[in-house]
Every structure is written in structure tokens, then in C-alpha cells.
Design goal:
The protein has 316 residues and is an alpha/beta fold. It has helices at residues 12-23, 41-54, 78-81, 103-113, 127-135, 139-142, 165-169, 171-180, 188-194, 199-205, 211-219, 221-225, 238-247, 295-308; strands spanning 2-8, 27-34, 62-64, 118-122, 146-149, 183-186, 252-258, 260-262, 273-275, 287-293.
């Protein structure tokens, strides 16, 4: 069972990914760190605590991290996820205290105390990881695995033609992390292809009389109405796909290693992910890119989680 810190800017799909990471027996979520991104920071914090409570994991510590990117200004994505991040109708106030300490410091501390035993599931901008590395230069050697939802591998972005949202929000952090860490990358293009949930998926969810199914329908309502770049009859689930690929190696169909760099400059190409699939540069090939996933089994995992709180039943 892998020990994991989930680093998130908790909105709709982040919440479903956090549910999956908390409910699977393949992972042990030891902490959650919050990073600036999808919606107002304090909303992200409450969304994470509420989601953990739904998974009967309210005792998982939630650490507040970076409230802004390293250098650049950015805009939230409330227009995508709904006001507050969970579809627009749900604005939880849990009354649960945040854990003492700063998210990046906690990432560094936990990896330092258990070298090679703690992995990072990064489903938001990479600001916290970059700051943790600044505090602990040996972090790339201390962490076990680093899974990142981000980037757009030779496809258009979802926030600009050049960039995916997480890399666009903090391209300086993304550039540093991909240069220093051995990352496994789950990109926007893979999410478009292999994480789609259409009308048939939602029809099945509607038959489940469970709290998690109700939460899923509510949290994804705004995204379903206007999912950028997704098919018109559904949504994409990039963060959930990343969590599932981390937890279930069986879902990884094609994984290749490339040199990947992120454009940190301001302007039209801010956050652009350069993935050298043809080895035309002399950059070090160290980033594992998931190029194909078992989309049918992934959807079955999510359905099993929403129906019976047992995502592992699909792959047992």
C-alpha cells in the first residue's frame, strides 16, 4: 500500500480523485496539501475537508499551502467548476481545523522522515512541490513517486491554445518540478481520450441511491454544462484518471519516457508543455508520459466507488 500526499486545488474532479485515493486500499492518504488554483483558496480548503469527510477520512490532516503562484498572476476557473468549485450549489463549512504547518514544509518533512516511502499525487498547479524543493534540495531523491496531472502533450490546451490549466497557473513551478523530479505525467490530451464520462455514464450514476453518487452529480453539474474541450454529452475526469493510474498499474496501457519542459515565459505560450517525442533536442529524457489508459476499466472503477464505495472491486 503506497503512502501518498495529495496536493490539490480542490474543485469538482479533484474532489472525486481525493475520494478515490481515500477509498482504495491501494493507497494510504497520509496528508492533503492545498495549492492556489481552481477557485478561491479558502473554498479549496473546505472542499477538501468535506470530501474527506464523505470518505470517512475526516481525520486526514489538511495543510494549507501556497495561496498564489511563485511569480505570476492568474485567474481561477470558477466558470468551469461552478462558484465555490463543487458545482455551484455546494459551499461546505465543515468546522474542521486545518493542520498546523505550511503545506510545502510538510511535504518536505514527511519525505525527509521516510525517505523513499512517500509519493506525491499532484492534481493542481505545482507551486507547493516547487516550494518544498526549495526547502529541501534533496527532495527528488527522498520522494518515492511523483504523479502529476498537467500539460498538454502535442495537443491544444484547455485554458489557452498553448497550455493546460495547471501548467498555465504556475509555469515557473511546473518548469522547476519537471526539470528536477522524475515525474509521471497524465496530460490533458490523455484525459480527453480516456477519461470521458458521457450521458450513458451519468444515466448509470443516476440509478445509484448513494451519497457519493449524489455528490458526484452535484459536483460535476457545472462542468457538464460547459466542459471546455470535452465532448458535448459529458465531462472529462483528468484528476480522477491520474489517481486511478497511480493506484492501479493495470490501467496503464502505454507509458513512454521523454524530455519534457514547460515554457515559463509570459505571453502566448505561457505554460506550454514541450514534449520531445522525436528526440530532436538534447534534453534529458526523464519524464514518464502515460500515452494510453484502459478507459473502460477506469470508468468502471469510478462507478464502483460511487455505487458501493469499493473502487478496488473492479480490479481485484
Amino acid at each position: 500500500m503506497d503512502r501518498v500526499i495529495v496536493d490539490t486545488d480542490t474543485a469538482s474532479d479533484d474532489a472525486i480523485a481525493l475520494l478515490l485515493a481515500s477509498l482504495t486500499d491501494r493507497l494510504t492518504v497520509e496528508a492533503v496539501t492545498i495549492v492556489a488554483g481552481n477557485v478561491a483558496f479558502d473554498r479549496e480548503v473546505e472542499n477538501a475537508k468535506y470530501t474527506l469527510s464523505l470518505a470517512d477520512a475526516a481525520d486526514t490532516p489538511v495543510y494549507e499551502g501556497a495561496r498564489r503562484p511563485l511569480v505570476k498572476e492568474f485567474e481561477h476557473a470558477a466558470n468551469v467548476h461552478g462558484e465555490g468549485g463543487l458545482g455551484g450549489e455546494l459551499h461546505p463549512e465543515t468546522g474542521i481545523d486545518s493542520a498546523d504547518g505550511f503545506g510545502p514544509a510538510e511535504i518536505a518533512r514527511r519525505c525527509r522522515e521516510s525517505p523513499g516511502e512517500v509519493s506525491l499525487l499532484c492534481i493542481g498547479p505545482l507551486t507547493n512541490v516547487a516550494l518544498a524543493h526549495a526547502r529541501e534540495p534533496d527532495l527528488p531523491d527522498l520522494v518515492d513517486e511523483v504523479w502529476v496531472m498537467g500539460g498538454n502533450v502535442n495537443c491544444r490546451g484547455n485554458v489557452t491554445p498553448a497550455a493546460e490549466f495547471n501548467c498555465w497557473v504556475d509555469p515557473d513551478a511546473a518548469s522547476r518540478v519537471l526539470a528536477e523530479f522524475d515525474v509521471t505525467l497524465v496530460d490533458w490530451g490523455l484525459s480527453l481520450r480516456d477519461s470521458h464520462a458521457g450521458d450513458d455514464f451519468f444515466d448509470r450514476v443516476a440509478t445509484f441511491d448513494t451519497d457519493l453518487a449524489d455528490f458526484f452529480e452535484s459536483a460535476t453539474a457545472a462542468v457538464r454544462q460547459d466542459a471546455p474541450g470535452a465532448a458535448t454529452d459529458g465531462i472529462t475526469q483528468p484528476d480522477s484518471l491520474t489517481a486511478a493510474l497511480m493506484a492501479y498499474p493495470e490501467l496503464r496501457e502505454t507509458v513512454s519516457t521523454y524530455h519534457v519542459a514547460v515554457d515559463s515565459r509570459a505571453g502566448l505560450t505561457r505554460g506550454y508543455t514541450s514534449v520531445d517525442v522525436a528526440s530532436v533536442t538534447d534534453g534529458e529524457e526523464r519524464t514518464r508520459v502515460v500515452e494510453a489508459a484502459d478507459s473502460e476499466t477506469f470508468r468502471d472503477v469510478i462507478l464502483a466507488m460511487l455505487r458501493e464505495r469499493d473502487p478496488d472491486s473492479v480490479v481485484a
